[in-house]
Write a structure and sequence with these properties.
With 326 residues, the chain is of the alpha+beta class. It has helices at 10-15, 18-29, 32-48, 59-77, 84-87, 114-117, 124-132, 136-142, 147-158, 163-170, 174-190, 205-220, 223-229, 248-256, 313-317; strands at residues 230-238, 241-246, 266-272, 275-282, 287-297, 300-308. α2 (18-29) crosses α3 and α2 (18-29) packs parallel to α4.
């Protein structure tokens, strides 16, 4: 290790990069829990091999190289994570049909608390871009890319690394990086990602009103008020179930049928995947039930994902209590 390269305690210097590395690994892996594990493994490897760090590259670059290798190893062993609509595109379920059995947690792109994957400091324009880059739709689309294309696109288009820096990191030529980036961009373009609202950390008055209306309508389980907030072609999904619905009428049919068990729920605002969402407690606040991630366009909900709590780990990830006070 070059003399003077690391001046503060090594642990502090490594920990200073935890949040941004977690954001990188989350985009790569599509799971907040897997990202936390990957970053812990990254920092452990860095600590064990700190004497090999010669200071020719920045510590940050070295950590990203380790993190990339950890992610590549993880992706080589597992299936691509997805959203329910990816499993049966163009074939929505029926709100009145049977509910298929839940699938394993490893099937799904999962939600991520902002505090885990976004550092929340820096230029406002950069922060807005960072929030967009952890949106569910974007992270789900990334999972369609081969691992190295995925890393290249994140490093170049999200983190703004130079092609030469990415080439050094991944032991590729600059032309190979540029070619892979073009292919990755073409794949994402084919996913037709929507530009959505409510992306600013400080929501404006109109957005704040929409969120308040949703919270109020859901807690009262007022179907007229909820209908008024839904786009005609709105979609809904509910991991770990493969079911997904399309159309306002289907969503309302679900809410007044099987979903009617949510009557009496309470919602707690949370920051999730770069936007405002809600944690839902059923039974008047006694049962952690789901994390709501709504997507808005032109003042209407165009998609809402309910991530169901299955084992207590989801609400713990968001730092939420097991019950709400009466």
């Amino acid at each position: 290790m070059a003399e003077g390269t690391l001046t503060r305690p090594v642990e502090d210097q490594l920990e200073a990069h935890r949040t941004e590395l977690t954001g990188y690994c989350y985009r790569m892996l599509g799971s907040a829990a897997d990202a936390e594990d990957a970053v812990q493994e990254t920092l452990t490897r860095a600590w064990r091999n700190i004497d090999r760090f010669e200071g020719r590259a920045a510590l940050r670059t070295w950590l990203y190289k380790i993190a990339s290798n950890v992610c590549f190893d993880a992706l080589a062993a597992g299936q691509r994570r997805a959203m329910p609509i990816d499993l049966s595109p163009g074939q929505p379920s029926s709100a009145l049909g049977p509910l298929d059995p839940p699938l394993a947690e490893t099937t799904w792109v999962g939600p991520a608390p902002d505090a885990l994957v976004l550092d929340g400091v820096g230029d406002p324009a950069h922060l807005a871009e960072a929030r967009e880059s952890v949106r569910l739709a974007f992270v789900a689309a990334l999972q369609h890319l081969p691992p190295r294309q995925r890393a290249i696109l994140i490093l170049r288009d999200v983190l703004r690394w130079q092609a030469s820096e990415v080439a050094d990191l991944l032991h590729l030529s600059v032309p190979a990086v540029n070619s892979a980036l073009q292919r990755a961009r073409a794949t994402l373009a084919s996913k037709d990602l929507e530009v959505v609202e409510l992306s600013d950390a400080s929501v404006d008055a109109a957005s704040e009103e929409l969120l308040a209306r949703y919270l109020d309508a859901f807690e009262r389980y007022d179907m007229d008020a909820l209908t008024a907030l839904l786009h005609e072609d709105a979609t809904q999904s509910m991991p770990p179930y493969p079911m997904w619905l399309r159309g306002r009428d289907e969503l309302i049919t679900w809410m007044t049928g099987p979903g009617a068990e949510c009557v009496g729920s309470r919602l707690v605002p949370v920051r999730v995947n770069g936007q405002d969402g809600f944690a839902q407690y059923r039974d008047g606040g006694q049962t952690p039930w789901s994390i709501h991630v709504p997507t808005w366009r032109d003042g209407r909900i165009v998609d809402i994902t309910y991530f169901l709590e299955t084992d207590g780990s989801l609400f713990a990830l968001f730092g939420l209590p097991p019950t709400l006070p009466a």
